[in-house]
Amino acid sequence: MTTTYVLVHGAWHGPWAWDRVVPLLHAAGARTTTPDLGTPGDRGLHDHARTVGAALDAVPDDDELVLVGHSYAGLVVREAADAARRTVDHIVLVDGWAGPDGAGLFALAPQAFADAMRAAAAASPDGHLVPAPPPAAYGIVEPDDAAWLAARLVPQPLRTFTEASRLTGRVDAIPGTAVHCRPSTFPFDRFGAALGYRTRALDGPHDIMLTDPEPLARLLLDVRGPGKPAIQKQEARSLE
Length: 240
Hints:
Blueprint: E1 3-8, H1 22-27, E2 31-33, H2 45-57, E3 64-70, H3 73-83, E4 90-94, H4 105-108, H5 111-123, E5 129-130, H6 143-150, E6 156-157, H7 159-162, E7 176-182, H8 188-194, E8 198-203, H9 208-211, H10 213-222
Helix pairs in contact: 2-3
């Protein structure tokens, strides 16, 4: 059985966030798809969950399906999995925001974070898009990587942070793993543990898929069914 990973990027990012992880998963015989949540317009959490749901529906029914959400996309992937037509075999949160039905990002985040995001949106030209924080906010400080990331970050609709999850409870029957990066920025390990997910720590910044793709890829491969090939240790591919 082939494993397909649906890799969902977080706020301010795009499918390119997974560019260093994808070839490592392919080298181990897996397939990947990377939905784009960055469609222009004032879209919210539920719109993004439907986008991911369409990607899930396109995965062949006989594939093992692992759904991965980074940061804000933790909320997205859980809502998408809850409503999916086909079975999701495992959910992985990578420093992911997540909670029960009715939880939204601002409900989970510190008040100071919510206030700062609202103020940033209010000060933007259209009043509803939050400008992207600088690369250092994601732990990206190496000059070349920081310049590469800064050129690609995009504004994020405020609605994605204010809308509350709509869950029937179906998602809670899907096994899950919550990866939390160290040193931590927010209590992502506690979010996962509260959902009954296995928690795993990785040393690296919030955007660990850019700085440490190989350990992350190995962890993602670990959640597959038995008998699947592992990746060989190799030098991570640089982005250009």
